[in-house]
Amino acid sequence: MSAAVTKALKRVVKTVLSIEQSEGQGARVRRSIGTYNLRNLDPFLMLDEFKVGGRAGFPDHPHRGFETVTYMLDGTFEHEDFEGHRGKIGPGDLQWMTAGKGIVHAEMPLGSTVATGLQLWVNLPSSAKMMPPRYQELPKEQVPDAKSDDGKVTVKVIAGSSYGVEAKVHTVTPIYYLDISMQPNATFDQEIPAGYTAFAYTLAGNAAFGSQPSEPHCTLVFSKEGDHIQATTAEGSARFVIIAGEPIGERIVQHGPFVMNTELEIRQAIMDYQLGRNGFEKAPVWESEIGKRAW
Fold it and tell me: Where is the Pirin C-terminal domain (predicted)?
């Protein structure tokens, strides 16, 4: 007879409340990772819960060396880049953009509705930092749902897997990105490999992670030890995301929208952008149409 498998729960080792601040041109964000209290959580560089409307937004700006993951909660976001790619994403839609060696793009709200969502920055290993840019765009219908056996927990599987359901995006680094909605008196259980960086970001309600209660707009960082995350609700419902990934373990040197491994590579990225070379050939002469809507 085989021995019973014992789950080792990851424990909460740090909790940080995200305070709303200004970003871009007129946008408001609650920054999780990327603040003084949570500088980097390898392989994650930044997480913003953003709110933009009207003429606010993120006009033309470059990226190199990492990925941006935009997941819409409400409203509609339009994007445009210097390779001619243009589109829009609405509630529940996902855009996974690998900047690689270089991209210049703009992100602006569409119409009069305030757009809200999450944007995650994921580092790339040195071997992939200069890969060609690529997009993976999934409408909400292609972001699969998973459910607990009792039906009290619903998971949008953005990356990785949950309750036997696999995500449709392909990631450079192994990653879990799960949007969890819990009914009252429910239990959520998720396997996350030991050694992975893992955290929760709370959107609504008051789920408890082990013995640690939470409130909206909090980041709860889990221990590397353990191989499961468990959350429970009492009388109220809750919504949060679980994000986890295998650490890259390389040096991070960041200068604004450029993330490389050395100071020399950062200087090279700045020069490439300014001189229009090595992936930024169109940067000096390109201007987005949607960026003109900004103040």
Answer: 177-279
